[in-house]
Amino acid sequence: MRLVFAGTPDAALPSLRAVLDSPRHEVAAVVTRPDAQSGRGRKVHPSPVAQLAEESGIEVLKPTKAGDPEFLDRIRAINPDCCPVVAYGALLPQAALDIPPHGWINLHFSLLPAWRGAAPVQHAVLHGDEITGASTFRIVKELDAGPVFGVVTEEIRSEDTSGDLLARLAESGAGLLLATLDGVEDGVLEARPQPSDGVSFAPKIGVEDARVDWAAPAMRVDRLVRACTPAPGAWTEFRGQRIKLGPVRLAPEADKLAPGEIAASKNGVLAGTGSHPVEIGEVQPQGKRLMTAGEWARGVRITAQDRLD
Q1: Residues 135, 257: one domain?
Q2: Cβ-proximal residues to 110 (8 Å cutoff; 6+ apart), any chain
Q3: Residue 152: inside a domain, yes or no?
Q4: How far is CA 179 from CA 13, 32, 145, 174, 208, in A?
Q5: With b meaning 16 or more CB within 10 Å and e meaning fewer, what string describes 217-249?
Q6: 3-state helix, strand, coil in the chain (%, to 5)
């Protein structure tokens, strides 16, 4: 099939590579979000998908809005049979959805209808799901509500961060997307409506949502930090300054500490929660490098009065 691929971040790269390598499909163009600031210098860079497409000699479209008339005219001129989508990051208007005869087929990183929305992997980790996966579905006007072509499942491990889990789903999901495109081309794959029960939503997790509440149980603290790693990054305050936290380890065997109380020793740095303590792994103070919690504790010289807030 003749394809226009839509995607933006690193998580879309395995899928783009899969369709580029497929002898059955031709990627005529790629649609991605406009260049944006990234990195420590906040310089403007093309998206990962744009970079791979440019390296492969493929036309790259970067509409400010997917409803821009010039963009829609270009898609019509390319005349794709189907448009696979992986983490594109913008809503597609009906005028765009109507162009390819086989529609826009999205790879979504959850088992729909669970976790519709922008942050399905983060919410699966945050809520303690044991199993998640990826789904391919035909995009309709309602958010992530289109009929589903197929799914793959993935176990969520106790130490998984959102970054770890998304990396695995991006790889297994690429195979699912390619199999879906093959099945659609062959006319042997039929999308089935999502069930009406079991619907849940996964809105974007912002910086304020990522603040650790030390009065919460240790398991909640652990899930929040893992869900927010690598982005937006879990954080707390120490002596009035914000610090980012890497994944923690549950420490039910440790002596109880008050919520936010810190106990540093040569064996590690513990923080109190609403239940039992957690061991802090890595810390990044504002304007400084990522370091082990032990390095940080030695540098700030923790006192008995210090707390994480």
Answers
A1: no
A2: 116, 120, 121, 124, 132, 133, 134, 135, 202
A3: yes
A4: 16, 23, 21, 9, 39
A5: ebbbbbbbbbbbbeebebbbebeeeebbbbbbe
A6: 30, 25, 45
Residue in 280, 282, 216 with CA at minimum distance from that of residue 251: 280
Structure tokens at 132: 């998640």
For the four alpha carbons of 101, 102, 108 and 111, in that order, the dihedral sign comes to positive
In this structure, are residues 176 and 149 in contact, taking their beta carbons and an 8 Å threshold?
no
Q: Are 180 and 203 in contact (CB under 8 A)?
A: no
CATH number reported for the structural domain that contains residue 138 in this entry = 3.40.50.170
Which residue shows structure tokens 């197929």? Answer: 150
Q: Which domain holds residue 277?
A: 208-300
In a domain, residue 201? The reply is no
Tell me the CATH number at 292. 3.10.25.10
Would residue 52 count as lying in a domain?
yes
In a domain, 16, yes or no: yes
Q: What is the pLDDT of residues 63-117, one digit of tens each?
A: 999 999 999 999 999 999 999 999 999 999 999 999 999 999 999 999 999 999 9
pTM to 2 decimals? 0.94
Whole-number percent of the chain with pLDDT over 90: 95
Domains held by the chain: number: 2
